[in-house]
Design goal:
alpha+beta, 10 strands, WH-like_DNA-bd_sf, NaeI, endonuclease, DNA_rep_MutH/T2_RE_sf
């Protein structure tokens, strides 16, 4: 998606304002408010994309590595998940909002392809920019004058440069969670998934990627075990935390160890995130011990 998009002309007095503004209000209300929309849509997009990339099973780390059919499926998945998120029913097009047929269009690129059946109908536009980790959600009435003259073999047309000015944005250039594996060293990823057991893989994850919040779903994917949360805790010397402690590495939970994370000057972690760090001095070892985390630290 272009980094600089034109300001929207869809304001009171615009011919589409009476159509799009009520739809935008209804979508926001169904999402649970503007803040919920800003949180849930980016999270939904991240999940839809990662579920197709399937790094733990395939070794792929980026959208660009997907097959063409898989990329197409992401659009279908986003449509389904967005309807579920907003509790919308299927309509003549993709959904129905306030009695209007609305087409849902998703892109991982810089534009959307509008089918002939959606011409002159409202479209809910969704976009995810994986390279920049930014997302978009907008509404447009797909009038012919907002579309390009050229079309593809399916007679679909894209939105013209002028047409972008007639989009009413709900989310515009908003950050969404970056692909965790895209940012990781390729050799480290290979070493992590070379482990034969869930404990081995999780221990390598926190050995090789330290001082960086790691989401719960990444840990679960690496563990490939239903009881991964039990494995991550101390477990009579066999748990992931036990293995790391013997190496002088502290494994902390954003939910239970937020004060220690702050005291160690580590990046803040959300409740469902974990972070590891190597204990570098006796003072930090003492703080960890006071918080209930015994980590081996040389005393001589």
């Amino acid at each position: 998606m272009k980094q600089k998009l034109p300001d929207s002309l869809v304001l009171p007095g615009h011919p589409d304002f009476g159509i799009l503004f009520p739809l935008a209000e209804e979508i926001t209300t169904r999402a649970g408010g503007a803040l919920a929309l800003e949180h849930d849509v980016p999270q939904m997009l991240r999940q839809c994309i990662d579920d197709v990339i399937m790094t733990p099973k395939t070794g792929r780390r980026a959208y660009e590595e997907l097959e063409k059919t898989e990329k197409t499926y992401i659009g279908t998945r986003v449509e389904i998940e967005l309807r579920a998120l907003l509790k919308l029913r299927k309509g003549r097009l993709d959904t129905e909002i306030l009695g209007q047929d609305v087409d849902i269009k998703h892109t991982m690129g810089g534009n959307w392809m509008i089918p002939t059946e959606a011409i002159d109908c409202a479209c809910l536009l969704v976009a995810a920019d994986e390279v920049r980790a930014r997302c978009y959600l907008g509404l447009i009435v797909a009038r012919p004058e907002y579309l390009t003259q050229g079309q593809n073999k399916d007679a679909k047309r894209s939105i013209s440069a002028e047409g972008f000015r007639h989009i009413l944005w709900l989310l515009k250039d908003r950050p969404y969670p970056a692909n965790f594996w895209r940012m990781a060293d390729e050799a480290a990823v290979a070493e992590i998934f070379a482990g034969e057991t869930g404990n081995e893989r999780m221990a390598q994850l926190f050995r090789l990627i330290q001082q960086r919040p790691i989401p719960r779903d990444v840990v679960e994917a690496v563990a490939q075990q239903k009881d991964f949360m039990r494995r991550i805790r101390s477990d009579k010397g066999r748990g992931t935390r036990d293995l790391l402690a013997r190496d002088g590495i502290l494994l902390l939970s954003g939910q239970y160890d937020s004060q220690l994370i702050k005291a160690l000057d580590l990046p803040p972690c959300a409740g469902g995130e974990f972070i590891s760090c190597r204990i570098e001095n006796e003072y930090h070892a003492h703080m960890a011990a006071q918080s209930g985390h015994a980590v081996e630290w040389p005393t001589s």
